[in-house]
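Why this split exists: single-chain examples teach little about how molecules sit against one another. For that reason, every record in the complexes split bundles all components of an assembly together and asks for one structure covering all of them. Below is a record exactly as it appears in the raw files.
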Amino acid sequence: TQHWVLSFSCVDQPGIVHAISGAVVDAGGNITESQQFSSDDTGRFFMRLQVLSPATRDELEATLRPVAERYEMSWKLDIVGRRIRTLLLASTAQHCVNDLLFRARGGQLPIDVPLILANHPTLSDLASFYGVPFEHKPVTGPDSKAAFEDRIREVIAEHNIELVVLARYMQILSPELCEELSGKAINIHHSFLPGFKGANPYKQAHQRGVKLIGATAHFVTTDLDEGPIIEQDVARVDHSRTPAELVALGQDEESRALRRAVTWFAENRILLDGDRTIIFQ
Amino acid sequence: TQHWVLSFSCVDQPGIVHAISGAVVDAGGNITESQQFSSDDTGRFFMRLQVLSPATRDELEATLRPVAERYEMSWKLDIVGRRIRTLLLASTAQHCVNDLLFRARGGQLPIDVPLILANHPTLSDLASFYGVPFEHKPVTGPDSKAAFEDRIREVIAEHNIELVVLARYMQILSPELCEELSGKAINIHHSFLPGFKGANPYKQAHQRGVKLIGATAHFVTTDLDEGPIIEQDVARVDHSRTPAELVALGQDEESRALRRAVTWFAENRILLDGDRTIIFQ
Amino acid sequence: TQHWVLSFSCVDQPGIVHAISGAVVDAGGNITESQQFSSDDTGRFFMRLQVLSPATRDELEATLRPVAERYEMSWKLDIVGRRIRTLLLASTAQHCVNDLLFRARGGQLPIDVPLILANHPTLSDLASFYGVPFEHKPVTGPDSKAAFEDRIREVIAEHNIELVVLARYMQILSPELCEELSGKAINIHHSFLPGFKGANPYKQAHQRGVKLIGATAHFVTTDLDEGPIIEQDVARVDHSRTPAELVALGQDEESRALRRAVTWFAENRILLDGDRTIIFQ
Amino acid sequence: TQHWVLSFSCVDQPGIVHAISGAVVDAGGNITESQQFSSDDTGRFFMRLQVLSPATRDELEATLRPVAERYEMSWKLDIVGRRIRTLLLASTAQHCVNDLLFRARGGQLPIDVPLILANHPTLSDLASFYGVPFEHKPVTGPDSKAAFEDRIREVIAEHNIELVVLARYMQILSPELCEELSGKAINIHHSFLPGFKGANPYKQAHQRGVKLIGATAHFVTTDLDEGPIIEQDVARVDHSRTPAELVALGQDEESRALRRAVTWFAENRILLDGDRTIIFQ
């Protein structure tokens, strides 16, 4: 018996839950967890199931396909706990990469990282401690940036990458690459979006005198810092904090927000409803 | 078309979701919200549905009853947003009563309060501002306590009370009454249980030097401060706070925790799994 | 013996604390609470003291004035716990006004409210329950707006108003009045500034799909939603919340952020460091 | 010019701040940060100062000593940012050790760790990655436990250890060693004390059905889980979490609470007021 995770989305209408649960019964499955949401904004239906079933993947797909076709669903079938092949893009900051690798090694974050690709060599030691291959290619202008992005494409193809994580990568991806990675690249921005977009958000936060600083994990889109938000976290600060202290304090929120976003992606808990995310926790 | 809320619990086994959703389809219903949980601790299945259906209550019950009987379910059918008839027990503290009545009047908390019963006259003005009948009976010894509890029973019968809220009532109910109210009386305790049970929890918290104070909303049971926990909330404090300041600060957490517990009860979001609560938010 | 609160700000330089504490000793005072901050941004020194002293106000002022003059200080002397004369401006929303009046009546918020001035009659009952005079003047165009603002000025003069609180007043004050009220008018904005300025912030928040909603209490300035931030608060939300539910949920954060800002103002805990606030908690 | 940190405690009486600030002026110092607290519980005065001064340590001590003696103060003079010599005691859990070493290496946590002493070899790799000497000695019975504690004493003497951190060490220290380490050993307990003392707190938390889990950093005393609390942190959980998931979730709160406690200790921000801690943030 295997533990499966299923997700579905389609135009909402009566009978969908019954049709899906009927297919699950037909496949000898028992639903152990289920969540559903109908969006008033888009009129779409979203569902995530975990199912125990002795059926093979082919059998399950054969049973579910007619339902999926009848309702013109986007759907996905996966195994609970399968490690998602993940490419980390990094620069010099260590905290997010360290947090992700620490939890991946401890078995709390179901990802496999075949490579860390960075534009600086700084994290080489960290990668080697965690036994993760590390490669660095400087990005100093348009040509080296294009070469870096080509290398991203190669790695994705070579390792069947399912998720790209910009773990404080600090470079803006080209519109073309953003398009190619649509829905499978997650960035961590070091502010509570939509406040303080762009560069130096902690400096902006200090100048504005905010009482809470934050971090936002979001899907990468061509529109900078505007992609669908997956998770946000904040920490209380006061007047005595310098911009440098805000940077240090915010690392915790960045690590946590990014880690949760990656975990939910790996567990197939994130569905897209237009520009908004549905998170089935 | 009516918006219905359904909740079910029974021994877990395959096919339950399909059977329930089939009955919903048969009743011409569309599921707008659904949550399910299977408890590893007790082996029980729990489900909450919101369903749009043109069927009458009788038709819905007729369609669902066979499913409920087949799986030996506890189940409940109600109308989304129906106001629950609620008796408030109070003493001298105003914050919880004020918070509940303020939100009930504003339409954010679906309860009707036919009476506030208190052992002190203090809240008479507050009740009258909100247009809620108020009655006070002193509790000064065993006899007056028994009389107070008899009055509770009368009010419950007379007004078909569905929920009793001890809004800082500060008296311990007799074991008999606790039994009678099992699963339908909610108390707010002014500490983060299981820490600081009993009297003067803020004084205890000050002496122990905790850095967070809290409040706990729980079902009333014969075992004092040990009933199933529904909601908890905390606030950060520091060394400079006196016990009196902790009392003042904690009022906010008490009000919020109690309000959420009452809201979830009124929305049929709380199910009991042994001594633990399932909260379907 | 009286409990005094003192606050000072001036250009930072060595010896200020010694000079101030010397004056306190000369006035027979004992410091019970003290906080100090030197701003790297502006080079200014800020201090707040609570002092027990048998001296009269005149004696204290005579002792402190030479120190204040030597360092060219802005300074203030007040009695701990004195109730600040506060004008509330309101519209139709009740939660902030209710929260402030509830705590003022309970003695937890040291303000006296001689009048609520509103552009709608909605809160008349609420005001009368708390025994606070209520007056409403419609604001429907430039003339009635000017008349409303003239009435604000009259009330301020007549009642020696020290603080004006825009408790969800929902009208933009004229630049002239903003200037006149500089540093003594607090507004609550229903978003986590600087995100979602202007109208309908919860609708904006829903569209953007944020995972935390917030509220910001700030001093009123001519630059809308850009005044110095005093306090911010957030609450976690998820995809299932409609804009209307965000409005309801956010009321709690609005009430709390505004209440804290008003409390700190009344306790002389807020000092201005350019466009940023120093909060001595 | 050096940046100094000073802390004082003594029986409260008028004139202390003036006496201290006078000595600071005499030493050519400028106060950049100051906090003070007078305890109603014990009648004691507490102060922490940061001072810029060109004086040598000997000069500063000579200037301050007469004040300290006049008021019979406990006092301490240190350099801001000096790294505290810290011994980590560990077992098999990695998260707290990793968190402390990551931040120590990044310069955010002012500690030097000359040795990790563990009763299991598990963390050897982690220690070596961070370049920290690692030693393990099994603890399997009274004799090996006594040997382990003797080794602790040796290391303390040899490396002039100022702080011992039990980073999920999971062994109870002998009363003798608790006494010896009084006020300089910090433990992290994996519950929100005083709830769930002793072993398996997450299992207890699951059984009790709490809605928030927590962690508590406290000074080690002979009375198990009863030492002065330094910091606490909580995370929201729901009914769906298994005890194993609570363990995983709680690691973040454990790491954060312990890290903050160690940081504050290293920055001389913790003073003891009987069984309670004063934290000058």
